[in-house]
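Human: I would love a firmer grasp of how sequence relates to backbone shape in proteins. Take your time, and here it is.
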Amino acid sequence: MKIKRPRYIESLKNRMGNGLVKVITGIRRSGKSYLLFELFYGYLLEAGVERDSIISIALDDEKLSELRDPSRLLEFIQQKTPDPSQKYYLFLDEIQYAISEDELKHPNKPLRIYGALNGLLRNHNIDIYVTGSNSRFLSTDVMTEFRGRGDEIHVLPFSFSEYMQAFDGDIYHGWAEYVTYGGLPLVPLLKTDEQKSTYLKSLFKETYIKDIIDRNKIRKSAELDDLVNILASSIGSLTNPHKLSSSFKSIYHSDVSEQTIANYISYLEDAFILCRANRYNVKGRKYIGTPNKFYFEDVGLRNARLNFRQMEENHIMENVVFNELRYRGFNVDVGVVEKRSVTERTYYEIDFVANKGSQRYYIQSAFEMSDAEKREQETKSLESVSDGFKKIIVVKDVVKPYYDEKGILTIGLFDFLMDSSWM
């Protein structure tokens, strides 16, 4: 079944012909190549673009290995784009295959492939789209190399609404599957729980962790493994290298330096396994610094890392809401609201402050809000914000969306995830 990803297609459409190299980033196996070579390719054909105007090159294909040399690749592209009055679309998959071992040994030297592609930008009739990821050259590096000539489209695993396109069942069973196995595109196609869990555990260990170890030349991989386990066990909790170092001492009786922990976290972020949420002082309008929160790009990978133990649905729901906001194009922070009285200061936390251009939303993720006390707990921080931006409480319970007398919207999780018109 073809899963439509209209948000990403719209992002690509909006960038067509902008004079930049469109760089599709994301965790490995998140569907970057499928988005470009199947969905966007199909869109262009439907829009009337001729097939010979779309040049698709998968550099990981051994039959095209000679094109891994940038000079040969450039020559091939020039042969395929002979008419300067015609518009061409260049799709280049797994760009890191065009980088030699010698170039990787000299990271400060300009790479030939980027010189070639930047040169192609001078041909205003060629629109360029690339993907790239491996243990030594991840998509974050691709953006760096273009130095202002690249335009990033970050691709997440399936959102819940996308996942439900492939799920054969009702929304409740779909949610149960999604919070367990996540949204990597291959997962809905696997038939059994054993297949799904085996796939995710193997992918984490044999692909993601191995990539990070190889890329960063990590010798003590056990420390990286332990760090991933600690972070997976505490998604949505405030932490920093100092706290994590203390956890290493108490749990593993290991003295891992704070700098090493900070480095490992950055490696996990570069590989798009983790995403950081910074703390933002809403009234002071400034970032606070550490501690931060960390969420997993895919909750299925998080669960697989813990052998599908610690399945606290409230924390996983918070991670899903965080990813949903990012999927909708928002930058997401953790909000802090300070209230002062004559004798003391009180700090309240807002789960998410979501920003996109002039838009802002304050959002609480509440697994259950069964009584007045619980509701007061969830609304207190939102009521402490005096600006006019929309405030939302997302609850797991099935409720008819409603606004209270303070203008706070309470909405059920499934309504929130399946219908973006509430924002």
